[in-house]
Structure formats: structure tokens, C-alpha cells
Amino acid sequence: MSAKKTIILVSSDNEQLTVNANIANMSNTIKQIVEKNDKDTVELKNISGATLKKVIEYCYYHLEHPSPSKDTEQWDLAFAKVDQETLLDVIMAAHFLEIKPLSELFCKAVANLIEGKSVQEIRQTFSIKNDFSPEQEEQVRNEYKWTEGKTK
């Protein structure tokens, strides 16, 4: 892929984004698709244009700032402060695209969101329906009693 200067990424909503090949190389998935198919265009049918733009923004920043520093750390923290839907969409995209540092950053943001919350608070935060019977819930609570000291 190094001979190609730009790659066109096509989102699920048919938004076409042209990126530098070095940006595309940050994704193992895109890199493999381009190398395997010898194409300059990669269709990403499970990633929206808005999410893809967010991923590309992260990649451009980290391409320009490759060394960890206080500035990149602060930028990352600010970058990960997004609404819940964007947070989960970026995690899914980063996982699919195999961009490990982005995936880790956003997973850490989720961990920070749920840290210290009870099971009920986490369910409320993520609109998770409790589909356990009272007996199943009791069994799980007994099985994972060791976690109770870490929640409110």
C-alpha cells in the first residue's frame, strides 16, 4: 500500500472520505483489504460517515503526534468525551478496523463511566433491560460476591 498516496473510504451512508495511505495503514483491516484486493477504495458498510470521520480525526492526530506526551494524553481525554452513542459506535468501529489504541482509549472511557456504579446504575446508564429472573439474579450475585466491595 505504500506506493498509493490516498485511499477512499466509503461509509455505510455512502460518504466518501479520502485519506492519506499512512492513515489507512493505521487500520490493520483497511491495510489488509487494500493489499489483498489492490484497490484504492474500501467500502465500510458497518461504519457511518460521522463515526468514520471521528476515527480518521484520531488517526490524523496520532500520525502527526506519534510520541506519547502530556499534550497527546490531554488531547485523547478530550477526544473521548463524547455522547454515549458516539462512544459505542467508535468502539465498534475501532474494533472492526483493528485500531487498538483507539479501541483502548474509548473502552477506558466506558470503564470510567461505569466505575463505582451499582449494577442498576449501569443498566440505567446504558438502557440495559434486566432479563434475569429473581432466582438467576441471586445466583449471579452469589457467584460474583467478590465484586460487591467495588460498587456503591
Describe the structure.
By secondary structure, the protein is mainly alpha-helical. Helices cover 57% and strands 9% of the residues. The chain is built from 8 helices and 3 strands, in the order E-E-H-H-E-H-H-H-H-H-H. A 3-stranded mixed sheet has the order 2-1-3. Helix 3 (49-64) packs across helix 5 and helix 5 (84-97) runs antiparallel to helix 6.
Overall pLDDT confidence: 90
Describe the biggest sheet?
3 strands, mixed
The shape, in one word, is elongated
Order of helices and strands: EEHHEHHHHHH
- Structural category is mainly alpha
Radius of gyration: 19 Å
**Helical fraction:** 55-70%
Number of strands: 3
Portion in beta strands: 5-15%
Poorly predicted residue ranges: none
* Count of alpha and pi helical runs: 8
Q: From the structure provided, what is the oligomeric state, counting identical versus distinct chains? A: single chain
Strand order of the largest sheet: 2-1-3
Give the termini separation: 50 Å
Describe the SSE topology.
Layout (H helix, E strand, L loop, with lengths): L5 E5 L5 E5 H4 L3 H10 L3 E3 L5 H16 L5 H10 L4 H14 L2 H15 L4 H8 L7 H10 L9
Parallel strand pairs: 1-3
Antiparallel strand pairs: 1-2
